């Protein structure tokens, strides 16, 4: 028979793990972010509840397509805690991604969230790569849904003839994005050329060529 300490230990482990699977849970009804506060905590401090209004929970920035006339042919419009301060401590956010024909949302990861997308318009070739280096991919079209597990590198490409768009949902108020190419080749200060040359098994000239084409991340 197991010692009584074992179930307690498992319960404790579960409690700890369940808190690391997504954003920490909230401790009150709302905690509308005071984005102007200089106090830094994990998340944002709450503004006084007598200064909270419906606008803190509202955003109309996803209703129109984003401009896709850029070098990638895609644009991500985020709807996270930075635009919707009422999302602070709630553990969810959205984004809209628009794609020109041929446009790509290049390989990237969200360190703090799983993503699930709903296709609003067009069709997309989507995929993610597991830690075993297996590509899981397929085509999705209007009305369909696809999931990108937390932390895994993923992408979407519009190989259709018309524009495409998705609404993406995340289980984090601020999922964060690391775009692989920009992270490695446009970091500031830069990642040393010799590190990238060795990692990609190419010459430093090729590294410099890639760096010159990727503007530093803002
Ligand atoms: C209420 O919010 C406004 C606008 O964000 C700010 O200027 C004001 O100082 C706030 N008042 C209080 C009492 O926090
Ligand atoms: C993209 O299109 C918009 C709207 O037509 C325009 O305002 C913007 O300057 C364009 N951007 C580029 C990089 O061409």
Automatic annotation (TrEMBL):
PROSITE patterns: GERMIN (PS00725). Mn(2+) binds at residues 108, 110, 115, 154. Its main location: secreted. Residues 60-208 form the Cupin type-1 domain. Gene3D superfamilies: Jelly Rolls. Pfam families: Cupin_1. It is found in: Secreted, Extracellular space, Apoplast. InterPro entries: Cupin_1 (IPR006045), Germin (IPR001929), Germin_Mn-BS (IPR019780), RmlC-like_jellyroll (IPR014710), RmlC_Cupin_sf (IPR011051). One of its GO terms (cellular component) is plasmodesma. Oxalate binds at residues 105, 110, 115. GO terms for molecular function: manganese ion binding. Residues 1-22 form the signal peptide. GO terms for biological process: plasmodesmata-mediated intercellular transport; regulation of root development. Disulfide bonds join 31-46. It comes from the Eukaryota. Belongs to the germin family. This is Germin-like protein. It comes from Kingdonia uniflora.
């Amino acid at each position: 028979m197991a010692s009584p300490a074992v179930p307690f230990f498992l319960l404790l482990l579960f409690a700890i793990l369940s808190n690391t699977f997504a954003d920490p849970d909230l401790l009150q009804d709302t905690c509308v972010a005071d984005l102007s506060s200089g106090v830094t905590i994990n998340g944002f401090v709450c503004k006084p509840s007598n200064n909270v209004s419906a606008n803190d929970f509202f955003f109309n920035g996803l209703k129109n397509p984003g401009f896709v006339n850029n070098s990638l042919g895609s644009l991500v419009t985020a709807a996270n805690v930075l635009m919707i301060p009422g999302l602070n401590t709630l553990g969810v956010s959205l984004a809209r991604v628009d794609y020109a024909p041929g446009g790509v949302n290049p390989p990237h990861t969200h360190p703090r969230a799983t993503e699930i997308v709903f296709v609003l318009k067009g069709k997309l070739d989507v995929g993610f790569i597991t830690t075993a280096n297996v590509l899981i991919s397929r085509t999705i079209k209007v009305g369909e849904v696809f999931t990108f597990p937390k932390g895994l590198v993923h992408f979407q490409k519009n190989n259709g003839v018309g524009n495409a768009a998705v609404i993406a949902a995340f289980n984090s108020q601020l999922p964060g994005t690391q775009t692989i190419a920009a992270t490695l080749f446009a970091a500031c200060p830069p990642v040393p050329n010799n590190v990238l040359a060795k990692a990609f098994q190419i010459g430093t000239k090729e590294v410099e060529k890639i760096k010159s084409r990727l503007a530093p991340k803002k």
